[in-house]
Amino acid sequence: MSADPGRRVVDDAVLDDIDARPGSTASLLRTLIGLYLRPLGEWVSTADLIALAHDLGIPAAQARTGITRLKQKGLLLAERRHAVGYRLNPAATTMLERGDRRIFEMREMTDADSWCLISFSIPESARGVRHQLRRRLHWIGAGVVSPALWICPGHLQDEAWQIVADLDAHPWVTLFQAHSPVMASTPHEAAAAWWDLDALRAEHLAFQSALAALPDDPFAGYVRLIDSWRVLPYLDPGLPPSMLPEDWPGGASVAEFTRLSAALADAAWRRVREVTATAAPSSPAPRDASAG
Description:
By secondary structure, this protein is α+β, with helices and mostly antiparallel strands. It has eleven helices and seven strands. The chain has helices at 25-36, 46-55, 60-72, 93-104, 127-139, 157-166, 187-194, 197-211, 218-229, 232-235, 250-276; strands at residues 43-45, 76-78, 85-88, 115-120, 143-146, 149-153, 173-178. A hairpin with a 6-residue loop joins strand 2 (76-78) and strand 3 (85-88). The protein is globular, with a radius of gyration of 20 Å.
């Protein structure tokens, strides 16, 4: 860590990466690793990883460059076993488990659910912490009531507090639980002020449009489905019906993702076992744990 307390960040944690553009080499490789490295025993040979990347349409040289960058970001650690390969960085486990919950268990609020308010007053000497706090609160779908007061679903309180802990920002941050905020505007107007609903709508419509272009091959189709979807459960907090317009596309996105992922997951896992010569597990096909 930097000696400057105003720039404290966590150096050994592997963070969610929702900035990588879906469909890019970086995004596809991260999704591939998040999906399959744990059920493969947290290690894969370089040759097998490049072969699976080829199935996704990524040329070998491009895949090698992308893998090197993921190693530099701390997601992978080089480790030779019977062949040259990579193992999952243990520091990525929390991020991957969080990805499991978000991507496959996306929660939609009801009007009776609680909220978490995040209030902070961070001095200018710690502006780096303030920037990272806002950035990472945005990553979990929090809305902006005012520059120093953010709001997220109550079930994300532990996740918000973990962000505070990661940044060592406890002296400046307070979390509150709240029910039914009282406001002069309507719930829909409040949501439109606190979140960028137009941008979220565009994300949902882009995801739905991407479904038409999914490859017929189950493995490539499944990985690209997850890759197109994986950012949405982070950015979209799953607001209650009273805060959303009647034509909100979120429900259709969730339904299509659920249907297609159930249809493709087993066949995709069979292809991974074929490439890596891995015996079939007793548990169902693995679920995604990538965040980016």
